[in-house]
Amino acid sequence: MNKYFSNIDKITFEGAKSMNPLAFKYYDAERMVSGKKMKDHLRFAMSYWHTMTGSGADPFGMATMERPYNDLTGMKLANARVDAAFELMSKLGIEYFCFHDFDIAPEGESLQEKNNNLEYIVPLIKEKMKETGIKCLWGTTNAFSNPRFMHGAATSPNADVFAYAAAQVKKAIDITHRLCGENYVFWGGREGYDTLLNTDVELENDNLARFLHMAKDYANKIGFKGQFLIEPKPKEPTKHQYDFDTMTVLGFLRKYDLINYFKMNIEANHATLAGHTFQHELLMSRINGVLGSIDANQGDMLLGWDTDQFPTNIYDATMCMYEVLKNGGIAPGGLNFDSKVRRGSNKPDDLFISYIAGMDTFAKGLLVADKLLTDRVLEDFIKNRYKSYSNGIGKDIVDGKADFESLYNYIILNDQVSLDSGRQEMLEDIVNRYIYSAE
Ligand code: XLS
Ligand code: NI
Ligand code: NI
């Protein structure tokens, strides 16, 4: 497996002092961190779409990416991409991948042709998985690119489109099952609206719930045990995506009796588009028991769309791994790089350099988060901040022993309240010091 990126050797760990762009500075796969190998904390996955099929085209310009398989088309191209994907993952030591049905095989003229293409490619992928030990973190379907999905898929006003999307998801669950996928993702695609003037929001939401019930019933029927994940996103491509953020999705899942079957796939750039921090979304999922997996990328704070950049922000990576550790790990989920190289970073080695940057950032984030937790830096501060709830009137409140009358009677005699400082700047400075010093 040294055909497409033959000028690049296996990427090794050289340590923080290394200046070699093609070496890890922090990601040391076998290193033990709080009783577990680094690679098992992080469970990195390659995104097939950005990495293998991303062309660099944008609304203002055409493809820029120089790829060793650029002269191929159709099934030959799909075939070459399988080989290239597994070569890239093996060289980077990435043990998982994620895919949409259309990333791995061309769509074709009909649904039948598309399914035939998939039937040809899936065994090739299976073969490569066997050869390399690389596994499938999750599969999904692309029910948003084709013009038939311009008004949505499960939330289309047209019932034939609903049926078409169902047929696609059925097939995508089938192949994810065959590839032993550990999860299956539902990202909202075009499930949302552009204007309320033409939209029956109530029917669209009911239909989305019907669709998800059918999906979980089908998975049960075929014995697919992977975790179902919903990936919240507030906008883009529609003005308002129904799966806006974690709390919105939770409300939806609870209303439609789906809460026991779905967890969240939290994407950093989607969190920021929703006006939240990445950590906010992770934390909301964690405390509700639905933190399933992570699309590790980052946006550009000056741009209002999903730029899907490789994650290099150490602060966000630290707080992400802090949530993952507090969650007791992320398995069977992982950290999928839903990230693409910038349009101008168009050489094949840019792919490797970008993955290394992302993997090193999260490896270092893991080390910092582990140290923060071991030293109970934030835990002890927070515990102390809420100490008024461990005795007296506060304990009565949390034990359910207080009511408005008892609280009235208490506070009328104790109305001189004294508050402590929140010490935000002190805590930010402490976190910074952990970031500087963790090794
Ligand atoms: C788009 C989403 C998409 C999902 C997979 O914004 O991030 O890439 O992760 O369909
Ligand atoms: Ni996204
Ligand atoms: Ni994503």
Q: Biggest β-sheet: count, sense, barrel? A: 8 strands, parallel, barrel
Q: Measured on Cα atoms, how large is the radius of gyration?
A: 24 Å
Q: What portion of residues belong to β-strands?
A: 5-15%
Average of pLDDT: 98
What is the overall shape? globular
The count of DSSP E runs of length 2 or more, i.e. the number of strands, is 12
Helical proportion?
40-55%
Structural class: alpha/beta
Spatial order of strands in the largest sheet = 3-4-5-6-8-10-11-12
Distance between the termini: 33 Å
Unreliable spans are: none
Q: Note the total helix count.
A: 16
Bound molecules: D-xylose, nickel (II) ion
Write the element-wise H/E pattern from the N-terminal end onward: EEHEHHEHHEHEEHEEHEHHEHEHHHHH
So what's the oligomer here? single chain
Question: Which terms summarize this structure?
Answer:
439 residues, alpha/beta, eight-stranded parallel beta barrel, two-stranded antiparallel ribbon, 16 helices, 12 strands, binds D-xylose, binds nickel (II) ion
List the helices and strands and how they pair.
Layout: E1 32-33, E2 36-37, H1 38-42, E3 44-47, H2 48-53, H3 74-92, E4 96-100, H4 101-104, H5 111-132, E5 135-140, H6 159-178, E6 183-187, E7 192-193, H7 201-222, E8 227-231, E9 240-241, H8 246-255, E10 262-267, H9 268-273, H10 278-287, E11 291-295, H11 314-326, E12 335-337, H12 348-374, H13 377-385, H14 392-398, H15 404-413, H16 424-437
Parallel strand pairs: 3-4, 3-12, 4-5, 5-6, 6-8, 8-10, 10-11, 11-12
Antiparallel strand pairs: 1-2, 7-9
Helix pairs in contact: 3-5, 5-6, 6-7, 10-11, 11-12, 12-16
The protein binds D-xylose and nickel (II) ion (2 copies).
D-xylose binds at residues 100, 140, 185, 187, 231, 233, 267, 295, 306, 338.
